[in-house]
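Example 3.2
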Amino acid sequence: MSNWNSGPYPADPNQAYYAGQPGYPPQQGGYPPPQGGFPPQGGYPPQQGGYPGPAPGFQPPPYASNDPYSAGEHVPFSSSPAGNYGGAAYPEDPEVKGFDFSDASIRRGFIRKVYAILSCQLAITVAFICWFLYHLPTKRYVQSHPALFFVSLAMVIIALICLACCGEVRRKAPMNFIFLFIFTLAESFMLAAAASTYDAQAVVMAAGITAAVCFGLTLFAFQTKWDFTVMGGILFVAVLILFIFGIVAIIVKNQIVQMIYASLGALIFSVYLVYDTQLMMGGQHKYSISPEEYIFAAINLYVDIINIFMYILAIIGHARD
């Protein structure tokens, strides 16, 4: 019986062949290292700029959403709302909202800011009215120096022009608050000086009626489905007619004319209050004010309220005479 190790194959492949075996040269130093073979894999090459774009002639499928990419025009592949995968545009994620004025959270914050500023303005105005109305030395001094009224009028006009016509002044803090404070002080002085010429009971009654009217009109503006923002041109014409009527009322010293003028003024500025409130609300209305224009929105509401107060005070004052 032959030994199993006597065949042509060695017992240990890792060892060299036995010397003297015919036909098989001895191995030189064991098996040689692998020649060639697969190169070492260093991982996938890094991606340059995300996934590659579509091949030439690729036509993206029609988009299903109502976004700017569904208009049928070709858009860059990397800017597609579906990402870089070439699919249809995904619907908007309800968890991710854009900073648009239609967003309910931004609108609520804007409205809160406007009403906070308006509350400060009205508080300053009420303080001036109470001071001029119940402090007799101040009341006599203001009534004996009418030049102060015209100085305040000039300050109101200058501050209002700067806030209305200069967007950089109106939108940048603290410059916008400085001009708003100057405007509020000058307007409060004028309103208090005018109110000091009436009886204190008439002023208090006019203030109460104004508060009730403004509260009711604000609730109406928030709840109604009528869009008053489209009435800007009509209201401008109405104010222009009211201005001409006011000049006539100054020339014609008639109590009936004065009552009609005051009634028309209260009516027009009541509609203006609804108009400006809906401009501030935005939403489903045709026109709206940008969230950056909180100073302008507060001035609009403030001017509407004080005009309603002055016209109601004129009605009550003429009725008591």
